Amino acid sequence: MANVLFTHSYFYKLDPKQWRTKQPYPPLATILAAAVARNDGHEVALFDTNLRDDPDELKGALKIASPDYLVLYDDGFNYLSKMCLTNMRQAAFRMIGAAKKAGCTVIVSSSDATDHTAKYLGQGADFVIQGEGEVTLSHLLHALESGQGTYGIEGIAFAEGSEIRQAPARPVWRDLDSLPLPAWDLVDMESYRNIWMRHHGYFSLNIATTRGCPFKCNWCAKPIYGTRYTSRSPENVLREIQWLMDLASPDHFWMCDDIFGLKPGWVQEFGTKVKASGLRFRYKIQSRVDLLLQENTIDALLQSGVETVWMGAESGSQKILDAMDKGTTINQIYAATRLLRLKGVRVAFFLQFGYLGETQEDIDATIRMLLELMPDEVGISVSYPLPGTVFYENVRHHLKEKRNWTDSNDLAMMFQGTFQGEYYRKLHQYVHSLYRSHRGILVLKKLIRHPWRFTFKDLKSGLGSFYFAAQSYTLNKKLSKLKLPT
What is the number of domains present in the chain? Predict the structure, then answer.
């Protein structure tokens, strides 16, 4: 059997915005692939890049492990990996080069490598796994170790001379319960715990209960798990939660599914089983407003410990939601937010500016919705075209040499929007400042009504409202000067 070193290409420290938040999660898909390889009898190790400073640190790990194979397997459950940032691409190329110099066969599985297979093969990768990777990797390692040919293996691409051989896609794996639990024992849990506890006072770990998303939002890329929605059973998920609580005692979980609990009855069954188990934990999810409004969904989520729900609100303009093929309505955003609040669940919004055809009136409608509903958290971005999406094809003729963001705070407009690119950067800052100033005002009102309940965090937020109000005023002035159509 083979000696396999697993790694991935996401470095939090090469993504300054994400590193400032200090909310790192272990590379879930990477350690799941490692568990599958270990079940096949291979010797596995992990070089976790998340908290590393530099991709050249891999060289030391290669000397220690002396692997036959380097498997660069990105965490397809993490939206940061799905963004295909060029900082991480360059890190991947450097690690591929180091592994080739060390005499390794290099296998890559990532969203970016699926989209840009030729680039990765051109940097020295021997094989690129396209799409869902565990079963493909298992077959590939077996074929290489046994001396069999690789031509009949679905889901791989490799270079043959100047040509790229691309096999047919592998069907998605339906029986997720048959996969082993991720190789959590390979993760340096204490490094993650220390960061979480120091900056947030609790420790959170990530779990995936599903794969894929069947909805057709036309800007959303799905290069790894696609549009087929597959669920683990509630019992299987609960077994992993129990195992993690025994191993690492986390206080909180991020259910990192694109859509949590879409399968009819799943959330209700999960809530019942969590209650019967006696386990107590908090968690956050990503969901859709129409799903949250279905009968008993929020109550069942509460029963199992949900604390925060992130919703893809995206825009306060129905025209833009329809253009995105979002399949939701503004009324549903308002209704779901108010219902979650009524039940005591924290609400968080993803918002997106700059979509094709968005006007100043649409932008104003989004800001108005944000200030009226005042979610507990907000993530703001600008429209970002990724290969494989309808949106990408619609703007492809606008794209020039730069086609990916450097890091998650790049926010470059890579297509012809309504306004110039600098307008959207300032808009991003303005909306954040306006939101924080309004949240601070709400906190000050709470302090006045209930002064005995305030915390240092509340006081900081309340006093910060004056700073953010001044900042938003200044940014609004700058926006007015930039508000000239391109």
Answer: 2
**Lookup: tokens for 193:** 């715990």
Question: Do 103 and 231 belong together in one domain?
Answer: no
Tokens representing 9 are 């290409």
Q: What torsion, rounded to 10 degrees, do the Cα atoms 320, 323, 327, 333 define?
A: 0
Whether 254 and 223 map to the same domain: the answer is: yes
Token pair in block for residue 281: 């934990």
Cβ atoms of 123 and 142 closer than 8 Å: no
For every one of its 486 residues, what pLDDT tens digit does the chain have, with 9 covering 90 and above?
899 999 999 999 999 999 999 999 999 999 999 999 999 999 999 999 999 999 999 999 999 999 999 999 999 999 999 999 999 999 999 999 999 999 999 999 999 999 999 999 999 999 999 999 999 999 999 999 999 989 999 999 999 999 999 999 999 999 999 999 999 999 999 999 999 999 999 999 999 999 999 999 999 999 999 999 999 999 999 999 999 999 999 999 999 999 999 999 999 999 999 999 999 999 999 999 999 999 999 999 999 999 999 999 999 999 999 999 999 999 999 999 999 999 999 999 999 999 999 999 999 999 999 999 999 999 999 999 999 999 999 999 999 999 999 999 999 999 999 999 999 999 999 999 999 999 988 877 877 777 766 676 766 777 788 899 999 999 999 999 998 665
Backbone angles phi, psi at 350, to 5 degrees: -95, 125
Q: Are 237 and 356 contained in the same domain? A: yes
- Token pair in block for residue 355: 């979509």
Same domain, 221 and 352: yes
Alpha carbon distance 359, 424 (integer Å): 12
